[in-house]
Design brief:
By secondary structure, the protein is α/β, with parallel strands linked by helices. It folds into 2 domains: 128 residues, Spore Coat Polysaccharide Biosynthesis Protein SpsA, Chain A (Alpha-Beta Complex); 235 residues, 3 Solenoid (UDP N-Acetylglucosamine Acyltransferase, domain 1), CATH 2.160.10. 16% of the residues lie in helices and 28% in strands. The protein has 7 helices and 35 strands. The strands form 7 sheets. It has a 9-stranded parallel β-sheet with strand order 8-11-14-17-20-23-28-31-33. The N and C termini lie far apart (49 Å).
């Protein structure tokens, strides 16, 4: 059986976070969506995604294929129903194809061809189909992933210098280090990944996940549900935010109700607003609609695509969407939609040239022992071309 996670219209709604990855590559909780499905089904996945991502994320299919929507989070009952599907059967929910079992996948495969032909799922499902779903579902997914990762395992002990509230809800992987910090797990579990570190004076409230090789800097104040993805650094004040991986907010400043992509860096004293002054519903930029859409949320902060950076003292307004490979700096509030490959701030923008972007990306990734591949370069070039229409100053 081949497990294939496919992208539907959710990929478009999740831009700019999905410009560089399939939907199933997004981290919600401790694990990415594909890691959750692999653990649940004990199968290795491949993806059906957008054409410009195919070389980096190739499709691997066989004579028996179980296709699952890449935005669907695995839960016990929906897993049971999906596993019961027979050849040619599909499962959907309110017009969204959840899963399909077929013997072969043609080059012209379209999930839309199977809509309205399968059984309707009667239970509730969790779909990561808009950017704000990542932080709103993060608490439930930290709890679910804790079960997936730690069941039947024993936690490493923390130092006696650490102050813990409800330590039975804290799991520590081998190689973690840290002294003289406080963890309160009364509101949700805390996961401390392998080779991660929490420095002195930090105060953390769960649900919280510190993934492998990540660091919480001295004196940080972190409110759950928050995830610091692998290889990242977190400091200052953070509330209900998700760092995908290899990104840094190492200094003071507030980040709330936010999703930060991979290879991002937030300069010292960067702050984002997560609540409008009139307490009204937040709207954010949506790529398919090419306009700002309602989120249904009162608290909604910053969404930043991969490889983007901002300078010291940057201020982001409520519901700001930053594309891929943007470089933001200067006084005042920049626009609350910043296209990919933007260079500048409130005082004006110019285009961040591709050759300069690739040069910086290679240096940033090299510091973590990761190479910028030919496939990565091709993806960034595609995003540059795609986003040209949004760079109005051109």
């Amino acid at each position: 059986m081949q497990l294939v996670l496919f992208d539907d219209h959710s990929w478009d709604n999740l831009l700019p976070l999905t410009f560089t990855r399939p939907v199933s590559g997004l981290r919600v909780g401790i694990l990415t969506i594909f890691e959750k499905w692999e653990k649940e089904l004990q199968l290795t996945h491949s993806v059906l995604t957008r054409e410009h991502l195919n070389r980096k994320f190739p499709l691997n299919h066989g004579t028996e294929n179980l296709l699952i929507n890449g935005s669907l989070l695995p839960e016990r009952e929906v897993i049971r129903v999906i596993q019961s599907l027979k050849e040619g059967e599909s499962l959907e929910k309110d017009g969204t194809l959840l899963a399909l079992r077929i013997d072969q996948i043609s080059e012209r495969f379209s999930y839309e061809d199977f809509l309205g032909k399968g059984q309707e799922y009667r239970g509730e499902v969790s779909l990561v189909d808009f950017p704000w779903k990542i932080f709103t579902l993060n608490g439930q997914e930290i709890k679910a992933d804790m079960q997936r990762i730690t069941a039947g395992r024993k936690s490493q002990a923390l130092s006696d210098s650490v102050r813990m509230i409800q330590p039975e809800h804290i799991f520590v992987e081998p190689g973690f280090k840290g002294e003289h910090f406080t963890i309160n797990a009364s509101e949700g579990p805390v996961y401390l990944g392998a080779e991660s570190e929490i420095m002195e004076g930090s105060v953390i409230r769960g649900p919280f996940a510190l993934c492998e090789s990540s660091v919480v800097k001295m004196g940080a104040k972190i409110y759950g549900p928050t995830t610091v993805g692998p290889g990242s650094k977190a400091g200052g004040e953070i509330n209900n935010s998700v760092f995908q991986a290899n990104s840094n907010k190492a200094h003071d400043g507030f980040l709330g109700n936010a999703v930060i992509g991979e290879w991002c860096n937030l300069g010292a004293d960067t702050n984002n607003s997560n609540l409008k002054n009139n307490y009204s519903e937040v709207k954010i930029w949506n790529y398919p609609e090419k306009r700002f859409i309602r989120t249904g949320r009162q608290f909604c902060g910053l969404f930043m695509g991969d490889h983007s950076k901002c300078g010291i003292n940057t201020m982001f307004n409520t519901g700001t969407v930053v594309g891929v490979s943007a470089n933001i700096f200067g006084p005042g509030f920049p626009r609350n939609f910043i296209p990919s490959f933007s260079w500048g701030g409130a005082g004006g923008m110019t285009t961040y040239k591709v050759d300069k972007v690739l040069e910086t990306a290679a240096l940033v990734m090299e510091r973590r022992g990761v190479a910028l591949t030919v496939e990565d370069k091709a993806i960034l070039q595609y995003i540059f071309d795609f986003s040209e229409e949004f760079r109005k100053w051109n």
